[in-house]
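ARCHIVE CARD
SHELF: 3
SLOT: left
DATA:
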Amino acid sequence: MNMKKVLSLLAAGAFAMFAFAGCGSDQAAAPAGGDKQAKVLKVGSSIDFPPFEFQDEGQKEYQGFDMDLIRAIGKEMGREVEIQNLGFDGLIPALQGKSIDVAISGMTINDERKANVRFSEPYYQSGLTMVVRQDEEAIKKFADLKGKKVAVQIGTTSAAEVKKIEGVEIKELNTPADCFMELKAKGVDAVVNDRPVNDYFITKNAAQGVKTLEEKLTAEDYGIAINKDNEELQKEINAALKKLKENGEYDKIFAKWFGEKK
């Protein structure tokens, strides 16, 4: 998966000036309060997709947006959350075999998967977004890129999609970091990449002098996958997710990983 490759590069040290690595072990997160034994919510995730799920050096628990979100959902449901690290291709079979209750792993909702599992309401919309310099006024949407220079990571969906825009001069570079450095050096007018790559880079590195534009060139929704037979759990997950969005907890989790919610 293209985006998994891009985001894994971020966590593996693709940014020479900002490094973070992964090691450690799994954990269970229990809901607050009470001595009653909470029913366990067994969660599967492929822990190789930062900033959604990864294991940071020196941390016992799995980290990431998805991890914080599913723990918050479990707490809202009054369920203890146990997270298993599974290969991405094994998540749907694990749901079908009922060895896990839900899977959360940056999983795009599509018709092929919906034939095999249920999905929660979307909790994150990915897609390609654009970053420009803070003082850039001539570029406000993708249509404004005609006649401009754009940096993309070589071999990515971003590169393929930007090539479809007429009149754009494309500069293909090795890593997202290279693209941002080229933008700040004024070698290009914009950077196009997956939304979480752009937002996470800016948030984690406190990048100054750049801004992300709201328009998306493509869009795809991520959802929490649930066994096809478990309509009741789907309703519970959706109710908890709705509550987190209403009480502001979702926005706090989002801001932690991607900056202020757009």
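SLOT: right
DATA:
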Amino acid sequence: MTRLNRGYIYLIITVLFFSTYEVVGRTLTGIVNPVQINFIRFFIGGLILLPIAIKNIKSKNLHITLQDFTLLVFIGLTNVVFSMSFLQIGINMTSASLSAVIFSSNPLFVMIAASFLLNEKLNPAKIYGLILGVIGLGIVFYKQLMSGGNHLIGIVFLVLSSIMYGVYTVLGKKFTVKYDSVVMNSLSFIIGSLLLIPLLLYNKYPIFSLPLKAIPQMLYLTVFVTGIAYYTYFLGLSSVNTGVGSMVFFAKPILASIIAAIFLSEKITIQLVIGTIVILIGILIVQRDNIALFSSKDADEEM
């Protein structure tokens, strides 16, 4: 098996695990607090990746400066404390399929964050793609917006989660210029989870104590979705071009919606299908310079 083929297998594993997050997370509604879910999955997930991160630091003779550590704190804050907490709250208030679609729109917000934080220019095509993506989001949840209530609040949290994940991605890009992704995610996962402890203590939420019926789901989210899936994602990206890697966020809302329909009996509405297609077209336009299923690099490796 070639390195390229292994890369595709790693990415398939990744998208399968990533696509189950909202569905499994939905089963924890009313059982485990969203803050505790994130603390456990990212603390243990970060520890799972830590041996690989330490090995990479030693092999590359890297030294983390105070400035680098400060950036890690912001990365952990935007991802673990804000983005993932908002996502879990949104999942609790809406549905798994809707949550997956809205969260998977984060590449649109990566573009906006990159324009502010990395001074990347917004060309007309990217602006058009962004507008199309926003229209797609409107199609997906316009009925929920009209109904108001908890559903509306949940949608707000989901959009905020997607925005914060966009910021996290851009901050991570700055960090990985010097370090690799495994180092960034392992350390930022652990730091971000530790930042949740004051919130857990203030609200008198349990830290590690879980109801017995929640343990299987938490083990799955921690070991497979947060630990193994992130690692296979990095392995996949090291074997194929980044354009193919970005396709994970194209497949996720589709697979997640199908899985939610099978296991949670959620209906796949026509507005969800049309909105998802419009969002994906918008993302495709935004990332058109990066997405190439068969780059010259891949072609060389296949020979």
